[in-house]
Amino acid sequence: MNTSKSLREYYITGKYKGYYKLRERHYKLSGKVHMTFSNGKKELFAIGKFKEEALNNIFAQIDVIADNTNTTSASGNSGGNICLF
């Protein structure tokens, strides 16, 4: 994953590989940022110390899902649940 390319795509289009931001919360006492992204079917969550760290965590999850989707589509296998935690 190229972090700068991923961030650039997100900041220009507001989306990353079909996922968009639903929520962004800043927790001042713990110093954390919580972000929620969705593609309309799935919701992904990530926490980071800074906004960019949370975005990188989300992008890593999206890349795993996208890679697994492409792999299962190419092999003709439609099954399998992905646990990201």
Blueprint of the fold:
Layout: H1 3-13, E1 15-16, E2 19-27, E3 32-38, E4 43-48, H2 51-75
Antiparallel strand pairs: 1-2, 2-3, 3-4
Describe the structure in your own words:
The two termini are 19 Å apart. The chain is α+β, with helices and mostly antiparallel strands. β3 and β4 (43-48) form a beta hairpin. The protein has a 4-stranded antiparallel beta sheet, covered by helices on one side. It has helices at residues 3-13, 51-75, and strands spanning 15-16, 19-27, 32-38, 43-48. It contains 2 helices and 4 strands; from the N terminus they run αββββα.
Rough shape? globular
Terminal-residue CA separation: 19 Å
Overall pLDDT level = 86
Query: What is the SS-derived class?
Result: alpha+beta
Short note summarizing the structure:
By secondary structure, this protein is of the alpha+beta class. 42% of the residues lie in helices and 28% in strands.
